[in-house]
Amino acid sequence: MSQDLFLNHPITTKSFAIIDQEIGQHDFDALEYKVVRRVIHSTADFELINSLSFSPNAIKKGINALKKKTPIVTDVTMVKQGVLSLVNKTFKNLVIASVNQTSGSNPGKTLTETGLLKCCNTYPRGIYVIGNAPTALLTLCQQILLNKIQPSLIIGAPVGFVSVLEAKQALKRVNVPKIIVQGRKGGSPVAASILNALITLAYKNELP
Amino acid sequence: MSQDLFLNHPITTKSFAIIDQEIGQHDFDALEYKVVRRVIHSTADFELINSLSFSPNAIKKGINALKKKTPIVTDVTMVKQGVLSLVNKTFKNLVIASVNQTSGSNPGKTLTETGLLKCCNTYPRGIYVIGNAPTALLTLCQQILLNKIQPSLIIGAPVGFVSVLEAKQALKRVNVPKIIVQGRKGGSPVAASILNALITLAYKNELP
């Protein structure tokens, strides 16, 4: 997500037109496609069209939560940076990076995981955007299974080679509105671009 | 680049072992491969091994500049966030995001471009890390052609569909130490992971 790209910036419009032309066949509905297109825009990786999945009404639920100024919890600061500019220009939700919520070390846990547990207590119905740490996503899923939290939406896009597939499998199994980037791919710009697409949809009032 | 991943974190070691196993044939030398591996680690995108190119001694020159505490200039704040943690744990170079160096609008120019011009004046021999804005990279190349700056290293990894290939072509033509992610792909984590790989190499004293 470029920090120069405002809603309807001419470079964005031109990029979207190129993606529309090159994308080929797909099964996404109109709203889903706007999210997919933004992800491709931020990565130039058309392979991601085969990885994105949406639970029923995830986009609509995410949009409603954004409009209600639901706090947004990210795993790492790069994801926070990727959404902050558009959030501040639109619904001005609180944006919290889990990794910054803790300074102490917790044996056997990553900083992101420890910080995320703290956020779960404070924001049990938050919008959670995970672009990096599979441990954060696994922790989120455990908290849902324990009935401790009920997030308004989870964007599950950690990236990498260790625990990433397991974390995404765990997210598939819990009952929560979710948008998942399946497989090993994901990352901060992917997670941020999914949320930015929802903000744009919400702000443009494209939903009844 | 995970903010949980310190040098030699066991998850990083395990991920690197998986990449070593899966990468197959390539022509990179030992130092280059450490950069390539870190890029794949941050994206899970093996396709990038075909996109990365290094000018002669770019890695060695980048490492020397890092050790001399040369200021690091990024285009956007996501790239800054991606490198800040490791920089602060190692050589403590100044890290500046161009986009934050200007508040005024400059007709026909992006914020990043205007901010970058300002950074060129202040840090003519800086390490420039571009992970998003092709306009920033084009501006950098113009300043080199005008003999106004001589960066210690340019990491050219903007992403997208408009002006990105042109900016990378321009970088290829100027005489400067450079690491380029060719094609449309790139992005903040890619740019950050290239610099983080160099920091790790420099800090571990892997060079004579």
From TrEMBL, chains A, B:
GO biological processes: cobalamin biosynthetic process
Recorded metabolic or biological pathway in which this protein acts: Cofactor biosynthesis; adenosylcobalamin biosynthesis
Gene3D superfamilies given in the database record: Cobalamin biosynthesis CobH/CbiC, precorrin-8X methylmutase
SUPFAM superfamilies: Precorrin-8X methylmutase CbiC/CobH
GO molecular function: precorrin-8X methylmutase activity
Keywords: Cobalamin biosynthesis, Isomerase
Sequence similarity: Belongs to the CobH/CbiC family.
Stated name of the protein: Precorrin-8X methylmutase
Lineage: Bacteria, Bacillati, Cyanobacteriota, Cyanophyceae, Oscillatoriophycideae
